[in-house]
Amino acid sequence: MLDKDTLRRWRRRPATFVEEVLFDPETGAPYRLLPSERHFLAHAFKTGADGRLLYPEQVYSCPKKSGKTAFAALHVLTTSLLFGGAYPEATLCANDYDQAQGRVFEAVKRIIEASPLLRAACPKITADKITFPEFDATISAIPSDYAGAAGGNPTISCFDELWAYTSERSRRLWDEMIPPPTRKIACRLVVSYAGFGGESALLEELYKRGLSQPQIGPDLYAGDGLLMFWSHTPVAPWQDDAWLAQMRQQLRPNAFLRMIENRFVTTESVWWDACVDRNAKPVLIDKMMPVWVGVDASVKRDTTAIVAVTFDMKTKKVRLLAHRIFQPTASQPLDFEATIESSVKDFCRRFAVRGVHYDPYQMAAVAQRLRSLNIPMREYPQSVPNLTAIGANLYELIKSGGLVIYPADDLRLAVSRTIALETPRGIRLAKEKTSHKIDVVVALAMAALHAVEQGSFEQPLVWPIFWGPKVGDRWSGDAGDGAHLARGPEYW
Fold it and tell me: What does the alpha-carbon distance between residue 283 and residue 297 come to, in Å, rounded to a whole number?
């Protein structure tokens, strides 16, 4: 029989119970919690003035192979044996019965068998139930049967890989397992990595709700009855650079983003990955290639992005040639002359630029200077109709495979943070969160629209046309650097 002082000490610091009592079945040694796990447990059992848990809803989410299943088992045992009160019940739920037995329940069973103190206190373990007579505690694995789960009184219910809970049946199970008000200490625990946007609705709702709460630590959010840890980076020492490189090689980009970076992916991002040509690279120079450029500029807050595309007459597809992203800060605002002007001029030296499309907001002076060099600057205000036009066009290009892009992590991340909103006017691009940077997607969309609209009418050039105004008997664009560039008909 455990003495009361030891129990009080463990309850004050639950991590000490884990590391003194619970043994790792693989090593035979006591568990050593990861920093993220230790920090989570430090807040998981906090109570209010009424003695009730502050956070009856708890989510622990990190990349695949972080030890989430083992941590769920540790949490279940700690909750049941230290904080369960009278007749504690732990219910391990899953999308199907085999998963309930084969994952968290199996982890709990192995930990008990490896831990001397628990092994002595648990004489009975069956296929789907564990009993601790000394604590009057039970731990059960149940199938996805909301009718059978009705009427339970769980101290803790655990949901493994909630991303797969997509059916009405599984949603009803979730509803049935709401923490009972008759217990002061009761919670629902979720361990999972990210799912599919628009499909894993239950997990996505929790994720968005968690992000709206105050951040109380690295990747840890708490408030409104919810404690959520959500990390996009590895949390375990075995997830080193070599492992990440291996996962990047073995997984498709979309799977890597969801499982390893722990980010929600959408059908649109699947279509985007289908547009990636793994053998493609940015094009260095082709002075005869007709090119359309999109610029989305910001001085202090958002990023500034410049994207160059062409329209392939043979394949009838838009092809990404080059892109640049600049990140200004409040203390170091963007120098338009050194970034935007320089980049546009560089693209004009390398390609036959047909148009540079930009939002005139904050770009008037830059556009005037570039226009004086005969660079075809084209105003494209970011009004609702214009944003809808570029959004709908880019959406259709991605969906139909009409876009060819080279691998680019920064562009891929921006696309994953972009939402295609359906409006009465059509598809419009929007951010998933206000802090996300999608300017490179907007720049790509601007360039792609005009490439599609004008590219099919493009006529091949039969001689080089020089860029810039004529100075004496020379063209300024060819003054000593050989930078002669093909221009559109209006400059012939």
Answer: 23
Nearest CA to 165 out of 202, 220, 121, 117 is that of 202
Residue 320 · residue 403 · CB < 8 Å = yes
What is the rounded CA–CA span in Å between residue 53 and residue 350? 63
The owner of tokens 């838009």 is 318
pLDDT (tens digit per residue) in 191-221: 999 988 777 889 999 999 999 999 999 999 9
Domains and CATH numbers, the chain: 4-230 (3.40.50.300), 275-478 (3.30.420.240)
pLDDT class for 267, splitting at 50, 70, 90? low
| Contacting residues for 246 by C-beta, under 8 A, at least 6 apart | none
Least confident of 26-35, 202-211, 265-274, 281-290: 265-274
Phi, psi at 290, each rounded to 5°: -70, 130
Integer Cα distance of 295 and 300 in angstroms: 16
The single-letter code of the amino acid at 53 is L
Q: Alpha-carbon distance 452 to 311, whole Å?
A: 7
Q: Return the C-alpha torsion angle 135, 176, 193, 43, nearest 10.
A: -50
Instruction: Classify residue 62 as exposed, middle or buried by CB count within 10 Å of its CB (0-12, 13-18, 19+).
Output: buried
More confident residue, 123 or 211: 211
Residue 320 gets the label, from left (phi > 0), alpha (psi -120 to 50) or beta, of beta
Residues 224-238 have pLDDT tens digits of: 999 999 999 999 999
Distance CA 320, CA 296 (A): 16
Closest CA to 411 of 308, 325, 309: 325
Burial of 337 (0-12, 13-18, 19+ CB in 10 A): exposed
Q: Which two tokens stand for residue 112?
A: 């008990």
